[in-house]
Amino acid sequence: MLFEDLVRRILTAINFDVAKNDVRGERGFDLLATLGNEQLAIEVKYYRTARAQPSLIEAAALRLVNNAVHAQAMKAVLVVSCVIPHKLEEQLVKKFNLVFVDRDVLRVWVANFPDLLEELDALLELDPSQPHRVRSTEDSHQPNSVWTKTRHLKYIPPQPQDTMGTDLCRELKTVKRGRAEWAKYERICAKILKYLFPHDLHGWHSQKRTDDGLSRFDFVCRVRPTTEFWKFVIDHLNSRYVLFEFKNYSGEIKQGQILTTEKYLLERGLRRLAIILTRKGVKRDAIAMTQGAMREHGKLMLVVNDEKLCEMLHMKEEGEDPTDCLFDLADNFLLTLPR
Q: Which residue of 6, 61, 145, 194 pairs with 96 in a disulfide if CB–CB is 3.0 to 4.6 A?
């Protein structure tokens, strides 16, 4: 939301007439802008990870071009907080006929607006003293020329969009809570995780355990440093592996379940992160136990309920990075960690 607001103010500063788009949801995009007699559909995507993830950019671009055509916009613009390499940008422009604006282009645009440049660098956590990629004059995407070089949108036959996130969320909600459908909950959670993190995790080693008289299967995966969250896990938690636990309890999980999970986190085994999938969340005294595990042993346990899991599924579907949601959970947990 902060990035979207900043992009709106940047566009206004370079003489666009910008307004929030009233149409939201499946047919929506973030901003409507006009320059001269042209109307532009603009979608804004914030990613914590600086390196462009092509699959997410493509998903966002496909959704935008379909929605822009439906809204009868003349052109469409995808603004992203990451860096899009020139070769990838050329491929995307050829495929989608959109304008792509990344963080480097934004910095060019605000070069004459020091306050906006400072705000952009702060929001994207950039070091102003470090060199940034310099685009050539031909590739500078100066705002007064980019639109004239870009062709108007033309009708593109409807293309299938990713609906797996919505489908998986719907399937998750059909699973009843409690012992009877524990195995069904495990299966849907496994499908969800492999959809959310196809390139981030490797191994998917299943461990059979018996707790509370229930036979369960949980995953241990090796982490790849593909996004800021997984880099944080490796570099700052010193954890090369992540444990996923599935808890299909009808109510909030209690201290006992947290204690059991903590025992499976191994400092010398480079396994110091657990992500607990549960239906309703965690009790207050159990939260205190997760805080103690982090404070005393450096073991991080994040609890993801159905609502948060569906939020991540919709993020992936819309071309956003679901690991940003995990980063926010970890960030909030550590910022509020008591002494």
A: 61
Tokens 């609890």 map to which residue?
303
Give average pLDDT by consecutive 10-residue segment, the chain, 339 residues.
93 88 69 82 94 92 86 87 93 88 92 94 80 51 56 59 91 95 93 95 78 65 95 95 94 92 89 95 93 95 97 95 96 93
195-201: Cβ within 8 A, 24+ apart: 195/164, 195/165, 195/168, 195/313, 195/316, 196/312, 196/313, 196/316, 196/322, 197/322, 197/323, 199/55, 199/224, 199/226, 200/224, 200/226, 200/227, 200/230, 200/323, 201/242
pTM, two decimals, is: 0.86
- Residues forming beta bridges with residue 220, ordered by sequence position: 205, 243
For 222, phi then psi, to 5°, come to: -85, 135
Tokens of 204: 């998917």
